[in-house]
Prior knowledge:
64% of the residues lie in helices and 0% in strands. It has five helices and no strands.
Amino acid sequence: MRGPPARRPGALTAPRRQKGSTMTDDKAEAKRRTNDVAFQTWADAKFMLAVEAALHELPEIQAETLRRLYGIGEASGHSVAEVAAATGVSVSTVRRRRDAGLRAIVRLDGRGMAEKAKLT
């Protein structure tokens, strides 16, 4: 009498390769991820150029206030109170400068800023 057929070691636990999956698919996925990172880096750089171009259009005091508050060109931003203390003005003055600067940026022509930042 014959017993049950012998099982190959690991036959039940070995991962099955999906139909059509190849090592080339893995390489293509790695290349896509690399391209995504490169694109994001490029987009971040272009965005910062556009932000700097917009800030360049503002009066210097408003631009500097926004740079300090939002940490543009720095590791991190600062609070309204910190900017007020550093510049020697009141908190309400910092808020007014911030609000005026943001309103001015919103009014700027987006296409004109893209051209100045060489985004085209």
